[in-house]
Amino acid sequence: MDNSSDVIEETCAVSTTQDYREPQADGGKDAWLFLAGCFTIEMLLWANMAMVEQAFHSRVLQHYYFTHEPFASAPSGIPAIGTSATGIMYLGSPVTFVALMRWPKLRRPCTVMGFLVLVLALFLSSFAQEVWQLILLQGVLYAPPDYNMAPKINFDFLRLRVFWVYQIPNIIEGLGYFGPTLYLPSYASTIGLPPIAGPLTVSLFNGTLVIGTIVLGAQTDRLHVTTVILITAIGAGLSVFLLWGFAVSLPTLCTFSIVYGFFAGAYSTAWSAMITGVQESDPGADTGLVFGMFAAGRGIGNLASGPVNEALLASQLWRGHGWLGYDTGYGALMVFVGVTALASGASWVGKKAGWV
Predict the structure, then answer these.
(1) Cα–Cα dist 49/62, whole Å
(2) Secondary structure, 3-state, 323-334
(3) How many CB atoms lie within 10 A of CB 257?
(4) Are the C-beta atoms of 55 and 178 separated by less than 8 Å?
(5) Could you tell me which of 289, 335, 342 has the C-alpha nearest to residue 315?
(6) Which one, out of 180, 181, 230, 299, has a CA that is 20 to 30 A from the CA of 151?
(7) Residue from 165, 169, 168, 160 nearest 280 by CA
(8) Contact (CB, 8 A) for 271 and 145
(9) pLDDT digits (tens, 9 = 90+) for 291-333
(10) Under a CB-based contact definition with an 8 Å cutoff, are residues 286 and 93 in contact?
(11) Which of 262-271 are b and which e, b meaning 16 or more Cβ less than 10 Å from the residue's Cβ?
(12) What's the rounded Cα separation, in Å, for the pair 197 and 209?
């Protein structure tokens, strides 16, 4: 009797194994449905953020603040509004990932709470009369709230050289990446272009960012990730030096927005391949946590970029002594953005040195 039961159980187990097949990872209906679901979530998320998110459209609001009272008379700190919002969101990523990994039941309440805080921050900011109030409301409060760090999470990957070979250039990239998009509308006004030029160049940047993300993101499946990073770094850096630096007309400035958006905007698509590289050295490294750390790295650069960019513009270096775009007072910012863009490809050097 016992033998018969064992045979029946084994037969059922074999039958179940034969009936169940793991869905194909890179093809088939399930993979496409998963991709469609991710696309829908991202579309809803970023479509909402695109209306108010300082990371993408603070340059339009920033131009308004620079040219309208009560903020125009005391413009110091205006660039920090957008960089504070995105910087805190990036920096909060690893903390949020850890907390929600530890307490997954908090995900839905945190989503609701975050939405309410966002709405409250935007509502209160409409009554702001000083720049510091905008920084607090549209910058700090608008960013997602932090959570307490959870215990028993593997941080061993932070001791790996490969992680820092990727992370340090990632921080450097964050220092310069947001500069052009923050100042495109004000730069367009400086060189005498019509008001439509600012929103147009921002739209071109965002449009080609999507294309660059798809095209260069696909290359991470064919080339080593450091090679893709080098391509984005060279493309972004040269576009700053040779296009933005020479841009004194609308066609040239639009061309810069297209090229810079394609290359610079695609840098973060390399994060997934960078995570894979880290996990090859530490299989226990959690994907979400490593992603959060890379996001935090960009956040560090983003937060620092606000005051740095403001200081560079205030210096008015080469104004009246430069050439074309470098003669507009934006020359120092252009050089800084171009140098940081090229330096963001340093992980390729690390690969050649055998560190990756």
Answers:
(1) 16
(2) CHHHHCCCHHHH
(3) 27
(4) yes
(5) 335
(6) 299
(7) 160
(8) no
(9) 888 988 888 888 888 888 888 888 887 777 767 888 888 999 9
(10) no
(11) bbbbbbbbbb
(12) 18
Task: Tell the residue number behind the tokens 């504070």, with chain if given.
Answer: 84
pLDDT in tens, 12-54: 544 444 455 666 666 778 888 888 877 776 665 554 444 444 4
Closest CA to 82 of 334, 299, 329: 299
Tokens of 86: 């995105």
Q: Are 340 and 241 in contact (CB under 8 A)?
A: no
| Whether the bond into 199 is cis, omega within 30 of 0 | no
Nearest CA among 230, 154, 163, 177 for reference residue 59: 177
List the structure tokens of 26: 């890179």
Tell me if 135 sits within 8 A of 84, measured CB to CB: yes
CA–CA separation, 269 and 126 (whole Å): 35
Q: How far apart are CA 241 and CA 260, in angstroms?
A: 11
Tell me how far CA of residue 215 lies from CA of 110, 195, 223, 266, in angstroms. 34, 32, 12, 9
* 75 phi and psi angles, rounded to 5 deg: -75, -10
Rounded Cα distance, 349 and 173, in Å? 15
At residue 151, what is the residue type? P
| pTM summary value | 0.70
AA letter at 143: A
Angle at 87 between CA 81 and CA 88, to 5 degrees: 95
The token duo for 73 is 């008379």
Q: Locate 101 and state its tokens.
A: 């990994």
Asked if 259 and 128 count as a contact pair (C-beta separation under 8 A), the reply is no
Q: Residue 125 corresponds to which tokens in the numbers above? A: 């900011």
